[in-house]
Amino acid sequence: MGSFHLAKMSLRNAFKKPATKMYPVVAPTFTSRSKGHVANDIENCIFCGLCQRRCPTHAISVNKDETSWAIDRFSCIQCLSCVRICPKKCLSMAPQYTLPATEKSTETFYKPEQAAMSPVNTERPE
Ligand code: SF4
Ligand code: SF4
Predict the structure, then answer these.
(1) How many angstroms does the Cα of residue 63 sit away from the middle of ligand 1?
(2) pLDDT for residue 125 is more than 80
(3) In a domain? residue 25
(4) What is the CATH number for 59?
């Protein structure tokens, strides 16, 4: 009886649509409860460092002298603490996931006037 049920279940699963999607080949569906990723409207950031101090996983690095804000997306657990504490409301959860990657990297944002040589979201040149 047990093996009959197992065979039946295996057959059913063999012809069922997969429960997971081939992300990022197949675009994900975002709902109102999807968290996505932390985005920074860097033009309004004052580099106060509150988000860095509040982050439980130390995913954020703020450099006031360089007017840069960086996030290690692999460490971020989407807890929203930084979004809630930001006094300028420049942090938000963008409804997209970051692309999967095989190597850890930090995404850095620069204040636009400082980034004349280097666009937002890239490392500033040496
Ligand atoms: S809390 Fe807001 S204003 Fe302060 S450094 Fe973080 S993102 Fe910038
Ligand atoms: S959402 Fe949470 S874990 Fe992610 S950067 Fe903000 S405070 Fe850190």
Answers:
(1) 11
(2) no
(3) no
(4) 3.30.70.3270
User: Integer distance in angstroms from the first to the last C-alpha of the chain?
Assistant: 69
Contact 124, 118 (CB under 8 A): yes
pLDDT digits (tens, 9 = 90+) for 41-99: 999 999 999 999 999 999 999 999 999 999 999 999 999 999 999 999 999 999 888 88
Domain with 46 in it: 36-115
Number of folded domains that form the chain = 1
Our answer on whether the CB atom of 60 is closer than 6 Å to any ligand 1 atom is no
**Residue whose CA is closest, atom 7 of ligand 2?**
55
**pTM for the structure as a whole:** 0.76
